[in-house]
Amino acid sequence: MEIADQQYATLLADQSKGKVIDVVKGVVVSQDPPSPTDEEMAAIMRARRNELLTITDRVINAAEDAGGTATAWRQWRVTLRNLPTVSGWPNVSMPKPPTDGSASTSDQTAITVLLS
Fold it and tell me: How far is CA 87 from CA 6, 46, 53, 84, in A?
């Protein structure tokens, strides 16, 4: 299927903005991607939660190695583990992490990215 150079440029620009290119009734168009299904959203949320649990375990271990207790991080870990049982799953907000300064800069950055 041939398209004009200008249409190609427009489609390419739209694709760089997150649109998907499709053919609708024989016409090449750009459109918003479909929303994830609940099953896909659950997989996405579970993967984020699992990454956060890995980070949380690292923060707890480091705090305990330094003689601390990491109580707030343990409570957050329980909340993360129970997240799939919360009403509305998977369309729920992630809980806020502790702000006690126990997390390293790289862990805090990773948490921020995963929660965004």
Answer: 48, 15, 20, 8
Supply φ then ψ for residue 24, to 5 degrees.
Answer: -120, 120
DSSP helix/strand/coil, 31: strand
Is the entire prediction scored with pTM above 0.90? no
pLDDT at residue 68, as a whole number:
84
Ramachandran quadrant class, 29 (left: phi over 0; alpha: psi -120 to 50; beta: rest): beta
Distance CA 22, CA 32 (A): 10
Q: Contacts for 74-79 with beta carbons within 8 Å, 24 or more apart?
A: 77/53
Domain boundaries defined on the chain: 1-34, 38-115
Instruction: Give the integer Cα–Cα distance in Å for 100 and 59.
Output: 11
